[in-house]
Amino acid sequence: MADVTADIEDTKNGLSSTRVAQILLVAAVLLAAARPVLPEFMIRVPEAWIPPFAQWLDYFFNVIVIEKLKIAVLTRWFAEGPLEFMLNTMANLLEGKRRWPFLGPVPWTAVAAVAAVVGYYLGGWRMAALAGGTFIWTALIGQWKIAMQTMSVLSVAAPLAFFTGLLLGITAWKWELVNRIIKPVLSVLQTLPFFTYLLPAVIFFKVGPTAGAVATIVYAIPPMILMTTLGLKKVSPEVVEAGKMAGCTRWQMLTRVYLPAARTEILVGVNQVIMLCLAMVVLTAFIGMPGLGAKLLAMMGSFKLGRSFEIGVTIVLLAVMLDRLSKAWVVKLPEHHEKGTPWWKEHVVLLTAIGAFVVFLALAQFVQVFDHIGRKQDFSRGKEIDTAIKGFLAIDTVQAFTGWWRWFLNVWILIPFRNGLLWIPTPAFILGIVAFSCWLGGKRPAIYAALFFSLVALSGWWDRSVITLYAVISAVILSMFIGLPLGILASRNERWSRRILLACDTAQTFPSFIYLIPAIMLFGVNDVAVIFSIVIFTTVPLTRYTIEGLRTVPPEMTEAADMSGATKRQKLLTVQLPLALPTMAVGFNQAIMFAFFMVIIAAFIGTQDLGQELQRTLAGTDLGKNFVLGICVSLMALSFDLTILSWAERRKRALGLA
Amino acid sequence: MSDRETVISCRNAWKLFGDNPKKFFASMSGSESFDDIRRAGYIAGVRDVSVDVGRGEMLVIMGLSGSGKSTLVRCFSRLHDITTGTITVEGDDIGAMSERELIALRRSKMGMVFQSFGLLPHRTVLDNIAFPLEMRGQDRHDRRKRAMEVIELVGLSGREDYFPRELSGGQQQRVGIARSLAIEPDIWFLDEPFSALDPLIRREMQDEFLRLQQMLSKTIVFITHDFDEALRLADRIAIMKDGAIEQCDTPDQIVLNPATPYVRKFTEDIEKSRVVHAGVLSRPLNGAAPEGEPVQASATIQQLARQLVNDAREDLPVADADGALVGVLNRQQALDVLLGDA
Q1: Which pLDDT value is given to residue A603?
Q2: From the CA of A260, how many Å to the nearest CA of chain B?
Q3: Alpha carbon distance A310, A382 (integer Å)
């Protein structure tokens, strides 16, 4: 149906997009086949033709932005003034940095107790156990200080990102023009690799925690903007009219009607802000932000698998806790108290929290372990775990297994595939991508793909871009072999699909950095480990959306299939999968975006792609080069994003699902 | 309704939805049908409507979904700006009002009840009802006092600390009604207030509504798509189709003398004897003095059914509430109405 309607639309103005795609594909194949006789400039864009984008950008930033407009003066003032003040205050309270107000560090028991009470308030005993337990684990394992370094940055960055996002979201909702400007900027920002956030942060906002905090804030703002506008747009028109009829002024409309009525979406935004902040704070280790991320980076760098594992567990626990608590807050609705409830009973949670805090604060004055866990007191078993893991990996069968996979993937799949992609002449490659985009997404995404990939070719980083793309494509294809069957199997059974969905949701909250740990453990530091970490990372959305797609097929359609006497297999192939495809495509798209994200981080293991170059720029002040590299990643990711989402959109409309 | 002072007056009001309604209206010849306008890419929400609402009157606007009734009532309160025409409320042209004046008008004179209640989900019953008072800056104590009064009026005492989602549909609409009454408005708009409720509750709420109206005698514009509801409540009914008013008259007249085929189709299945009153069906006395016990002018033909069948007189005298004779009811004519041959 979709193809039919789309074709009808397209044939009105000339050729159908399928036909265009076929022509483009033939052209690409012909060009590739003619490689031996092609002149050099048709195989790769010659150096001489490449415009000096990096220099232009450098000029733009250094001369115009920094020298002429003095933007850096303003940003550095902000970084060294209010921002650093907030960071220092939180750092003092949580980890005891010697700064105003010289009160901290707060004893770990007091923090854990308050967290448990908050957990209880938001989600009952289970949340209390999760919140309290996370902090107890962190303290007992001996990571309290580094965890608090991370948390103190998080506790400054998340609120700032929230308020900035909220304000921008309101502006974009109020003025259509702002919305039009902000939308494309947001989609670029969301695909920009995180290394690209880091360098400008360093240059404009000083090195160290401040720059890390700024990069974190900027990174977390886009989803908050989107959720705010979404929430405000969704407020029921009758509620709006009720507000108007009550004689609200514009300001009253916004603060008393719109914002409270959009509470759910705004809180979902809060959840996303917190999760993105955590993911980013961990990654800012790359520009020298102390904390869990830095420690993990150091431990993985020296191949201390035991300690890496323990830090990984802490990060995961923190992530799960923050996610669950903020989600519990989303669904937590106010409840009324019966008449005549005494004052203390209405505020019992608040009073308990204060009480617990004071009690543990007092206890900590007398009992040392309640205040902090000393050097020799922690329960870290880093060495033992390290020996265990390394012992396990040294077992012959395990080694043979991982060794064989490494060999097989490398020799038979990855290297030939990579060399193949690198062999294709640039114009043929671009034509091929455009043909794919045209066939799947239609003409408009194809035009964007052509434009974007041509820019990549002109950036001078073509080979590295192709290697990046190779890692992304091979990882996504490999994860399809795992994710799709897993999703299909799980969706057959209510209980299993719920379990797997929960597992996927939980896995999605982990900061991406975590996924490197098992990869390095199993395969060491090489290409296969990179692909492997991307594969685990991207399998999650693929599985998740497959289950979701299959389970949201309207029941009357599966019932109709049953009554037509379809077997399970027929039902799956002819009814469920076709209807689930648009949703699955969203998962596929997310998988590709995740892969682009992960492949850059994997630079840490040692890759030859754009990420590696990007990481190198962090050491210097090559802002122009950093941007060019970042934009290359972003442009490739956006091409896929536009194509796949356009397909899913059209398909959904054709199926009457949207 | 010439005997009442006009509160809302609507003259040749048009409401077009589309890219540039004003320009399109200027290009229209005036004879375009709803479908012609739609083909040009515009939707005629309200099409050349002129209607008056008198003080204390209940005007029921009735029509199928998409007939423009909700749009019309939103034009009365200027939730929508009309494309052309004038709407005056108590003599003031609301189209010419500034935002400040409009807010003042709504804060002091208008109340509105919505089909899906339009309650603010994050506020308790009490705070929802006090919301309009809060908006006009009344202090907390006064707000609470007034809100408690209306809560009692709509029978929700004891639930003032509940949140909307903790209430049933009927109770939620009571909150909506209470909120609209909190500022003691003179003009009361109700947009299909009972449509989202199930039939039993709907009936109960209609009774409740009639009770309130008898106490408060507001000027009311009531919207419904349910003809029975319209007949039960209305002083006058305006039947709308494609944005235009097909007929605006008393229930008796609409049933007895439908102005257009569309209205006739609407009234076909209605049991006329339940709607038509003896007073409406009677002819003037003209000096005649029929004998015997008179029937009440305010009685419906159905209520008189037994007497009409048993009575042997050809003409029955009709008396008003004070017992004064006001007309003569032809028994055969009344029987025709009763049997559905009228």
Answers
A1: 81
A2: 7
A3: 7
The number of domains in chain A is 3
Q: Measured on CA atoms in the order B47, B48, B53, B57, is the torsion positive or negative? A: negative
- Domain of residue A13 covers 8-39+426-458
Tokens of B37: 């306008």
Say what the pLDDT of residue A433 is: 94
> Which positions in chain B touch A239 (Cβ < 8 Å)?
118-120
Same domain, B266 and B293: no
Number of domains in chain B: 2
Give per-residue burial for A21-31: e unless 16+ CB within 10 Å, then b: beebbebbeeb
For residues A525-550, average pLDDT: 90
The answer to whether A174 touches A114, Cβ cutoff 8 Å, is no
Report d(CA B294, CA B193) in Å as an integer.
39
Q: What ipTM does the predicted assembly reach?
A: 0.87
* Contact residues on chain A for B121, CB-CB shorter than 8 A: 260-261, 263
Residue B3 counted as domain residue: no
Cβ–Cβ below 8 Å for B114 and A257: no
Mean pLDDT of chain A: 88
Which pLDDT belongs to residue A334?
Answer: 77
Closest CA to B127 of A271, A246, A118, A652: A246
Model confidence band, residue A323 (pLDDT cutoffs 50, 70, 90): very high
Contact residues on chain A for B137, CB-CB shorter than 8 A = none
* pLDDT at site A658: 62
Q: CATH number for the domain including B279? A: 3.10.580.10
The minimum CA-CA distance between A333 and chain B, rounded to whole Å, is 8
- Report if residue A405 sits inside a domain: no
- Domain extent for B162: 53-271
Q: Which of A1-5, A286-290, A536-540 has the weakest average pLDDT?
A: A1-5
Rounded to an integer, the average pLDDT of A607-618 is: 82
Does residue B13 fall inside a structural domain?
Answer: no
B335 CA: distance to closest CA in chain A (Å): 47
